């Protein structure tokens, strides 16, 4: 595998966050205690996390020429994202998401895709050089599915490793799975894709085996506070995350994916990359927001070192 640069075929949604004591039910209005705004979208979040955590990262995306698009462009430049393949589309608004968060960190999210759904196959064809220059290309399902599937097949045909974070969850064509090197669903997404119950580590391993049997090289199923399970053709494993007090889980899965891509593209093995991603995601849930919650590389390294030291002391205690 060629080490180095990551390309993320991405969605961008500005996040409008409202935090209150609880989430509303159908037809109910609940007053929020806080409001804040920040850049979001699964692909955008993942690219930013990868960049902040040390990997040269480019984004292939469409954003509007509105205020939110201007804000996104400035954010990417501020965080070192290569913007050569970001298309400004004057015909439609940038993607928008509204996130409601309760006092326990649980959330509800609604998304208006906007420019994300204007990304097309011509944009993918125009990025072939970027794909070839990448050690890993990351995908999600917030762009039109036919475009995502086309791009996955193209990256695979070029011999470039593919990671799919299959969210929002949707059924995929059977013949797409052999084009995916790494699939990273959470437990709910794994249930949707496989039809199997995923309530615990054993359920995650069964789902992981389903993916591998259908052609995926490696499946990584995340389980929140239960950590992450991985299954490949040669091994299975499970890693718990560091124990933290969660206040906002929004974007933790995206930060996991971005951190995993950063670690793996820089030469860490599968288990090391998952441990790194687990730790980055754990730090992120202790903070409000998504982009604002991305930890620095030094923070992830420090927590991993501390957890390793505690584990060694416990083993010898």
Helices, strands, pairings?
Blueprint: E1 6-9, E2 13-19, E3 34-40, H1 42-52, E4 57-64, H2 67-78, E5 86-89, E6 95-101, E7 107-112, H3 121-125, H4 128-132, E8 136-139, H5 145-157, E9 161-164, E10 182-183, H6 187-194, H7 201-213, E11 218-222, E12 228-232, E13 236-239, H8 252-265, H9 270-284, H10 297-315
Parallel strand pairs: 1-4, 1-8, 2-6, 4-5, 8-9, 9-10, 10-11
Antiparallel strand pairs: 2-3, 6-7, 11-12, 12-13
Give an overview of the whole structure.
The protein starts with 5 loop residues before the first strand and ends with a helix. It has helices spanning 42-52, 67-78, 121-125, 128-132, 145-157, 187-194, 201-213, 252-265, 270-284, 297-315; strands at residues 6-9, 13-19, 34-40, 57-64, 86-89, 95-101, 107-112, 136-139, 161-164, 182-183, 218-222, 228-232, 236-239. By secondary structure, it is an alpha/beta fold. The strands form two sheets. The chain has a nine-stranded mixed beta sheet with strand order 5-4-1-8-9-10-11-12-13, with helices on both faces. The chain has a four-stranded mixed beta sheet with strand order 3-2-6-7. Helix 6 packs across helix 7. The chain has a single domain (6-22, 35-307), classed as Ribokinase (UDP-N-acetylmuramoyl-L-alanine:D-glutamate ligase, 3-Layer(aba) Sandwich), CATH 3.40.1190.
């Amino acid at each position: 595998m060629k080490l180095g640069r990551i390309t993320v075929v991405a969605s961008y949604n500005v996040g409008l966050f409202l935090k209150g004591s609880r989430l509303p039910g159908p037809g109910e209005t609940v007053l929020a205690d806080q409001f804040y705004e920040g850049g979001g979208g699964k692909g955008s979040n993942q690219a930013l996390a990868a960049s902040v955590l040390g990997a040269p990262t480019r984004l292939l995306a469409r954003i509007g020429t509105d205020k939110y698009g201007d804000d996104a462009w400035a954010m990417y430049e501020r965080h070192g994202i290569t913007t050569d393949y970001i298309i400004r589309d004057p015909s439609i608004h940038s993607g928008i998401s509204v996130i409601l968060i309760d006092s326990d960190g649980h959330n509800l999210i609604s998304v208006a895709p906007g420019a994300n759904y204007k990304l097309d196959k011509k944009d993918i064809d125009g990025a072939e050089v970027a794909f070839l220059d990448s050690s890993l290309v990351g995908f999600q399902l917030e762009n039109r599915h036919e475009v995502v599937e086309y791009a996955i097949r193209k990256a695979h045909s070029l011999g470039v490793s593919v990671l799919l974070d299959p969210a929002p969850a949707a059924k995929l064509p059977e013949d797409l799975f052999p084009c995916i090197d790494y699939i990273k669903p959470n437990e709910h997404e794994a249930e949707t894709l496989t039809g199997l119950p995923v309530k615990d580590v054993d359920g995650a391993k069964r789902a992981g085996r389903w993916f591998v049997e259908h052609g995926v090289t490696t499946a990584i199923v995340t389980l929140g506070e239960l950590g992450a399970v991985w299954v490949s053709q040669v091994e299975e494993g499970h890693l718990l995350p560091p124990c933290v007090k969660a206040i906002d889980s929004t974007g933790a899965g995206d930060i996991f994916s971005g951190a995993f891509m950063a670690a793996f593209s820089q030469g860490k093995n599968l288990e090391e990359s998952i441990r790194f991603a687990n730790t980055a995601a754990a730090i992120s849930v202790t903070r409000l927001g998504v982009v604002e919650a991305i930890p620095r590389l030094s923070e992830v390294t420090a927590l991993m070192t501390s957890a390793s030291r505690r584990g060694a002391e416990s083993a010898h205690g």
